[in-house]
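Comment thread on ticket #2218

A.B. wrote:
> Attaching the input chain for the structure job we discussed in standup.
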Amino acid sequence: MSQEAYCSVRQWLVMKEEDITSKSLKRFRLYILDREKPPSDATPVAATSSSSIRESESERALLPGSPAAAAASHSSWSDDVLDDSVLVDALDTFESQEELSASQPVSTGGPKQPPPSSSVPATAERPEQSPLSTSKKAKHRKPMLSLLHSTSKATSSERPEQPKQQTLLPSSAPGQSPRDARPEEPPLTSNSQPASATTLPQSDSPVELEGWVRLWEDSQGIPSSDIPWLKEDGERGLFTPVQTYKDIKGIIRRRRVLKSDRMWFYPPEPPGFVSGGIPTPQAFFRGRFFFWRPIGVWRCSLKCPRGDKCAGAGGNTHLSKSGYHSRVRHICDVSGWYTMATEVVSCGPCLKAARRGESGSMGRWLAWDDLILQQLSEAHRARFPAVLTAMRGMDKTVVRLLRDRTEGNTMIKVWRQVQENHMEDYYQRKDLYTTLLMALVEPGGIVSALGHGEFQAAPLPRKLPSARLLRHAFLLAEADNVQDYRSQILSTFGTVLKMDSTKKVVKKLSGEGKGSAEWFTSIGNEFSQIVSFVLTCEESVEKLGPMCRGVVERFRLANQPAPKILYIDRGCCKAQGPTALETLFQPWVDDGMVVRLDIFHWIHRFDAALRTEAHAKYAAFKSALAGSVLAYNREDLQLLITAVRARDPATMEVVTDENVVRRYISRDQLKHHVRRLTLGAQETFRLVHLVIQELKGPAGLDESGVSLFKSPEAIDEMWTSQQRHLECIQDPPGMAMYRVARTTTINGVDLPYYKGLRGSNSLEGFHKSLPHMIPGPHCAARPYQVYLISGIARWNSDRSSDAVFGGKGRHNRIYSAPLIDRLNSRCQQLFGEMVEENFRAPTAVQSGELLGLEYLFNQSTGEAFSLEGIVNDGPGPEEEVIQPGQADLDGEADEAYQSNEDHPVVEPRITLISSETATVNPPAFEDVCSDNPLPGFQKLEAFCAVLVEVGLTDQKLLLNTTQRNRVLEAWNAVEEHDKQPQKYHQLYRTHWGNTLYCRTKRDNLADAALIQKVKMAKRYAPAQQDISPQHNRLMYVLVKLLWLRSPQASRSSPEKASILKAYDRIQHRVLVDDPILCKAGIPLPKINTKTVRDFIRQQERLVNLHATRQPVVISKTTSVSSEELPPAPRQPAVLPPPDYPVIEYIPTPSTAGTKLLKDRRTNMLVATPQPPPQLPLQPPLPLPVRRIPTTSTITRPVLPFVSQSAGPSSTQPILPAGQASILVTPPVPIRQAVQPDSGQNTVVGTSWSRSTQYKRKLADHPTGLGVKLTRVQHLPTCRVCGQTIQGHKKYKKKTYCPSINRSASKGLENRVFKNYEHFVSVVDGLEE
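C.D. wrote:
> Ran it. Output below, let me know if you need it in another format.
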């Protein structure tokens, strides 16, 4: 190695100076070349034996501490010490590698002798230094640099003298090197448990890692990059610092025990710069480690899982630690993998019975087994971080990401994100590793010149988790919560129920139940919650009967009143006899429940007699049907009109109420602020008949002369069949169909926000979201059931807030009922507050209902459906990860990445403005052709005509004076409300303030949206969203005039392009080039091709519509009723307490901290004490203990020498390995209970365990004077019988003596009872 270093330096010295990039290295090269030049006045010396002696003397002169070395160092290196640090580090790295390359251990004999040579005197012998002293050579590197050119000195260099040994440490024995006598152990921590109490000699034995399993180091065990820090790192690793102890044979040993204060172990951070040696890849690819030890860390007292079959049943037997499992699990996290190990617990009686052959299996269990986890309290059980599968596991953080399954948020999306996180984390670690290596290979550096060999490549990335692994882990986690979810679903009630069926979700069922189900039938309540759901093969009384009877029985057992209305989509009425629904719900019908047909389904039944939905009169016909059945309440409508007028009273006073409703009020405002009521069967019949007769004539034709109806006979037949349902769509008399959910403010006017109870639209929305609860295109039976129950339980919980005023039912999205119930009761008791005040525990009734596939399998096969086999449904060990070269097949079936063109996007007509539901419309909403238009339209049209002339003239860039004056005169004549610029569309208000670009820190979302809009406008000018008279009359008139006056379009210059070109001319000539008009403030916003295209399409649609005769019929917005409605009930601010029996959750008691672990004791020999001096008896004085200062010590009781002259048990400090203390303990006489015989042998030299001491004590004292006494010495006695009160009973603070059937309590002294039950009845009678 020294020869290679010499050759490398010589090659570096002959390099060109311009090839060296570092300034310090250039000076170093010049320094070496100057030292190699012979002095001019020196005479050549012959090569004799004395030359080596002089060289040796020159070397010693340059050793650290010598004056010559100091002078040379100061004269040569004082120029730039900081720059030379690079060279010092490089040399330090080289010498450390040279020392580590030595394969032979250091000899323990005498000082190493050099090769015999006549030129080297005997006085030149030196002992070989310990490698520990090499760390002190860094400060002496610079004087030694001058010796690099000498090959004879490369093999051995001067070492600083060995420091003297401490006086308290034992000196090295003959034949032992100083290295062997040097301590190497780190200081002890508070968790160490040494066992020696005397001055221990130093041990050469290896350090034992108590608890480390060698199989963990296999290829399937702990990753190789994590093994070093887990075993060696004293701060972050698994083990405590080294402890020195003496075993039962008197041999001094060293050990490191497992830490018992944590379960999570986090690796050291990767280095950020190169210091010392070349970095290795292991430091950059470490992972976390989790050690599951409920007994070793938490000290939980656990029972044998066998219960009554345990060999020690009936006794106070608990599980104990029995080593650690030889296999580890690799857990998939969000961005990587971590390793998990566990302890093994055992039952002593079961183990002994198995060894005797009395039982079949050994009583050992892994601590992560479900039988063990179920004994822990819920809080401790939740700290287990993963869901275990066949060979690996999934972290619960990833499992939680899979719970919310909505449109676009599928399991495949989460799986792809996890894969991306894994690879991104791996490449970032690899990037840091290669970045540090690149700093070592810069050309011209000393490291590259000396040669560094080949760098270690980074380890290969770990295998990515498969989608099946994620799904299976989620199913295992949710399967444990299915019973809780069922109880929550079966605790849902309501006063207005809706019943409907769907087929779409049934198509995803595969496996055992494929093809056996046809319908998914569900029942919901007025809050859109699901009361019950089943899968059936057909919709009939026979198949749906068990479900309906179960729901009725549940209401009865829970003391809930019968619902008032049941909305359905068919089967509402019958010509003779009761209908099918009335038969299914006969008990409720007898209590007054009515069955009603959903109005939405009734109206859409007319589609069978219509030609197409694209007909120009289709919307008018549907609006007329809705207005014939339902009418708006005039009082609520007038309040809404007042709120809209309050925005601009001066402008709105000339607009009639009809135009306000038609132009200023949106559909959402009418839906939530104005109640609707049914007009009655007779009025509905009259209005619908008029509509049909009107549209049969010319009013029902479009621009092509095509009629809306297929034929007059078809619409007449449909109308005849629909007439018998007119009574079924009417509201029950005297029942409020709305409730006040909250209060909304519009322009300073408070309006009630209504929630309707009518119809089954809520079930339609649930059925639309239902297929997204089942991930993928198909699913097997057991996963299908888990997905359904968990998804519907979360659906119900999310909609429970609607039952409280203001939507403040639930504060947080927590779906575990036992967890909320425990926290509510504990926080109420401890802090006087509740976590979720509107939480209601599930009901405790047992109605025997079946849900989902349970219902289907019971009807089809007659067997009970179970989830027991779901553990075995997961992937195999090799399928849990993606193998190299495996294709990504799971992502192809992801519904989130498939477009659906069947659902057109419907844009809203009007948006909202200042409040939650306030409109934000410009002042010029009125159509120019309305009865009372806003003033100034003719002036606005004249101004736009002048601008059109400017835009259609393309010969000049600037306007002349005449044109400028005409524009100014026309602009000044325009009304003020037409000069206001258009505000941006409020449809995207929720997006502003939450996007990534131009984000602003504002608490108020409205302010943040405005500021963000301004920021975006500076970078990207926003285009006009739509051109209509409702938003901006100026833009509407201007663009329409440009469209009508533009020349005929051609293929090279389409119509939209010509309009945009003319509009751009107007913008530049008015707002940019003219110095006067640019200051007039004419609002001409930017428009684009899409804006013009949408405008032209809308105008063409209106032309086609108005080209035919318009029907004179009622519409949805013009149907207003003057009938007074009673005030709608207000939802409660806090839910009332439940009037049904609730489930009483009994939490598992915590046993943490109750397990008494056996103290670590080791047998040892202690020195025989000398007889005490004959001194007067006096209290012993504690002598000081002289010890080496340490960071921490641990004290343990030590059993003394048992004799008449032995002292009591002493407590002595235990020092870390390598440190000793001199302890002088005076003998103190002790008091003995029994004086032993003179011939009795004393027990010398051995420390036994507690049980062994007790047994030997009983054997030595047969008289019973050493028997262990009970802990309680004075038990209280009964005043009646005089015996101890053990076995006595107490009831309501009254005592009862079972021996004589009497009581010592006040008022019962003289009574004699027959038995304890008689005593209880007497005490109860006293309280009454």
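A.B. wrote:
> Thanks. Noting for the ticket: The CA atoms of residues 962 and 968 lie 10 Å apart.
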